[in-house]
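Please complete every field before forwarding. Incomplete forms are returned to the sender.

SECTION A: IDENTIFIERS
Entry label: holo-159
Bound molecule: magnesium ion
Molecule representation: SMILES string

SECTION B: INPUTS
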Amino acid sequence: MKTILLKTLADTLAFGRFLGQVAQSGDVICLDGDLGAGKTTLTQAIAQGLEVPANDYVTSPSFAIFHEYQGRLPLYHMDFYRLADAADVQDLGLDEYFFLAGLTVLEWCERAEDLVPATRLKINMTIELDESRRLICDPGVGVWQERLEIFEVSMQKYL
Ligand SMILES: Nc1ncnc2c1ncn2[C@@H]1O[C@H](COP(=O)(O)OP(=O)(O)OP(=O)(O)O)[C@@H](O)[C@H]1O
Ligand SMILES: [Mg+2]
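SECTION C: PREDICTED COMPLEX
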């Protein structure tokens, strides 16, 4: 586990851009945590890092559960807020995207956690008293541990 403290919105956007830039095909990022913590905001910055055109902006998919965007890689943005459990995700066939060429970002992933590959990056976002965001990152069994360490030493570059 790694804790990242994002003091300002600019820090959150920097982290998202970094994630989008280092993402490889088949990666999955799970975002959980407080309502309004910044899961969608972080995803917007991930899209920017993935070179999704600015006019093709990332909306809150809570209204739609699933959105696909075209960047350097396809971005599959899902929000399970209105789904009950893993069975709902499977009924909609959404779990098939986790294994396609592209980056999958899942908001409110916890309710379908068992479906997600073990190489995922799992992030829990909470709001601190001063509006900063605390991210508890579980890098899973893949390459994310190494990538998060790179972000910590080079964050200034992404601001
Ligand atoms: N440090 C910060 N990081 C991220 N967002 C911040 C920060 N400070 C303020 N904000 C604001 O908090 C809000 C986060 O909203 P957002 O929709 O991204 O949250 P969410 O986690 O997706 O919510 P939901 O649980 O409803 O899906 C935005 O309006 C954003 O501008
Ligand atoms: Mg959201």
